[in-house]
Amino acid sequence: MGKIAFVFPGQGSQAVGMGKDLYDSFDDVKAVFEQADARLSESLSKLIFEGPQDQLTLTINAQPALLTTSIALLKRFQQSGIKADFMAGHSLGEYTALVAAGSIPFEDGVFTVRKRGEFMEEAVPNGQGKMAAVLGMDREALKEATDEVTAKGNIVQLANINSPGQIVISGTAQGVLEASELAKTKGAKRVIPLEVSGPFHSILMKPAATKLQEVLDSISIQKALVPVISNVTASPMDEPEEIKQRLLEQLYSPVLWEDSVKRMMELGVDTFIEIGPGKVLAGLIKKIDRKSQVFSVFDEASYQATVTSLKGES
């Protein structure tokens, strides 16, 4: 077997009840949720386990909830003894990867992504920004379309380059609408508006980055013990100053997920383990490279199945 990468999901993978089976069964997992509650001075765990879903889905709640649940699942997975050669996360998931890699203490990570969520929601008034998934169009042609719309005065840009044929665009509501129509005329198979509260990973998030810098300056960022693939550059990073800079840039830059997966493959990774709620990243990785081994660990049953498969146990 080649190298292993742990990957962590981003916003959109949250679901009421995530992590509850492990919380009830393992003290070290329960401790993760309790640490998050203490750091935020509220019962985040109650919201995670009981909902309601509409409150859990709010950016300010979804981000710390996903980081907490993913790290709790990682605690369980670490008992297998299987280690990662690289780590990566999609958008918010990059913070989870940095916590997992020992670069950011867990409590600081939870606090930071709560503030990140606040700043993202504050940057653009609700309704003024949009995002949409464009299916069946290559990035060069789509970039031409977004550049054309932006040049006319309505900002829109590529936000998440997820897999071949799946790219998310982000910008002003009018810009996304115009780019969506233009993309259809240029051959896009489908355009799906996304239910999000703002134009994430667009230049409109620059005000959020300014505020986030103060938070990142106030927390402890150490050298990562395992290289983390940056969303912004699709290259490994482990030094504190670079990590801080990339986290700021990430707010208003495209998430190069397809490039990141390909980079890990170039570095010898042939096994990807998604640790966190859902199977979104596993699905994207399979679209990028069908030959890679891909696993999802989101509860006790999937943990057992993954370990059994990787260790060759019957």
CATH architecture designation of the largest domain: 3-Layer(aba) Sandwich
Q: Regions with pLDDT < 50 over 5+ consecutive residues? A: none
Overall residue-averaged pLDDT value: 96
Kindly state the number of beta strands: 10
Spatial gap, N to C terminus: 18 Å
What is the strand arrangement across the widest sheet? 2-1-9-10
Beta-strand share of residues: 15-25%
Order of helices and strands: EHHHHHEHHEHEEHEHEEHHEHEH
**What is the fourth-level CATH superfamily of the largest domain?**
Malonyl-Coenzyme A Acyl Carrier Protein, domain 2
Biggest beta sheet attributes: 4 strands, parallel
CATH topology of the largest domain: Malonyl-Coenzyme A Acyl Carrier Protein, domain 2
| Class per helix and strand makeup | alpha/beta
CATH first level of the largest domain: Alpha Beta
Q: Choose one word for the global shape.
A: globular
Question: What's the Cα radius of gyration?
Answer: 19 Å
List the helices and strands and how they pair.
Elements: E1 3-8, H1 20-25, H2 27-40, H3 44-50, H4 53-57, H5 59-78, E2 86-89, H6 92-100, H7 106-123, E3 129-135, H8 139-151, E4 156-163, E5 166-172, H9 173-185, E6 190-193, H10 206-218, E7 228-229, E8 236-237, H11 240-250, H12 257-266, E9 269-275, H13 280-288, E10 293-297, H14 300-311
Parallel strand pairs: 1-2, 1-9, 9-10
Antiparallel strand pairs: 3-5, 3-6, 4-5, 7-8
Helix pairs in contact: 2-5, 2-7, 5-6, 5-7, 7-10, 8-9
